């Protein structure tokens, strides 16, 4: 479960958690906007709510228990019918609602269901809830794109340092452009193998329909490491370390740095 985020809807702070990379919004927080006594169990006892939840689960949850759902649906709306979130989840294996304990305890719903719950607060509240959630997602995407583009630019700058080192140290004088291109590509694949475990040609053969190249599909962590090992390889080339020895060194550096980056909370915030 990732660190929580919050949005402000008409002056009310609402917590959002990630479960299995999906956004879940706090219904417990949302209840504070409702006038009078109103409980999540009141929403759950409504037949329209049960039908909506059942349809959503049938689309997104392959392990949904339809037999238990049918029993619950037949009782929904009756005066003596009561159902808690925990009971709903336990009986039907539902994934759209979650009851949590601890620091961020309460009832959370997948964003699709939370928006529907928002209508029970008020139509106005639902509209502002969707608006603020979309704003949060746009901000996250803007930060992600900025970071990705920054690291792509850094990688390209370092690649120039890398090719200059190749030109000064490896490429002899008076060779053709085709020969020079082969050497550059060969050294670029040293980085590819060190980081991705395969050459650009091997990756293309394995991913014939993918957009871009092996580096276009890289994660933020991989782009950071690529920028680092490009600079290191440039220095190794100037030190006249053999290509095979450089590959072994760069591969170990890439492994160590990726292990560090993938556990770095500051990097995880960007994903």
TrEMBL record:
Residues 3-136 form the KilA-N domain. Pfam families: KilA-N. Signal peptide: none annotated. It comes from the Bacteria. This is KilA domain-containing protein. It comes from Flavobacterium weaverense. The lineage of its organism: Bacteria, Pseudomonadati, Bacteroidota, Flavobacteriia, Flavobacteriales.
């Amino acid at each position: 479960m990732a660190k929580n985020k919050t949005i402000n809807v008409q002056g009310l702070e609402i917590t959002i958690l990630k479960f299995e990379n999906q956004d879940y919004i706090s219904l417990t927080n949302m209840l504070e906007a409702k006038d009078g006594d109103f409980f999540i169990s009141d929403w759950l006892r409504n037949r329209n709510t049960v039908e909506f939840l059942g349809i959503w689960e049938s689309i997104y949850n392959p392990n949904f228990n339809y037999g238990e759902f049918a029993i619950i649906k037949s009782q929904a709306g009756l005066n003596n019918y009561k159902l808690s979130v925990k009971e709903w989840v336990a009986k039907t294996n539902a994934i759209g609602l979650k009851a949590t304990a601890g620091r961020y305890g309460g009832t959370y719903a997948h964003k699709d269901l939370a928006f529907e719950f928002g209508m029970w607060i008020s139509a106005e509240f639902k509209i502002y809830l969707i608006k603020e959630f979309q704003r949060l997602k746009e901000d996250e995407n803007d930060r992600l794109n900025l970071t990705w583009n920054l690291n792509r630019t850094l990688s390209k700058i370092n690649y120039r340092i890398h090719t200059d080192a190749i030109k000064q140290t490896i490429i002899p004088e008076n060779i053709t452009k085709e020969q020079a291109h082969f050497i550059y590509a060969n050294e670029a694949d040293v980085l590819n193998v060190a980081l991705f475990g395969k050459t650009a040609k091997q990756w293309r053969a394995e991913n014939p329909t993918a957009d871009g190249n092996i580096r276009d599909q890289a994660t933020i962590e991989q782009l950071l490491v690529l920028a680092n090992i490009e600079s290191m390889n440039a220095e190794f080339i100037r030190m006249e370390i053999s290509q095979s020895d450089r590959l072994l060194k760069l591969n170990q550096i890439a492994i160590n740095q990726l292990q560090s980056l993938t556990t770095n909370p500051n990097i995880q915030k960007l994903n």
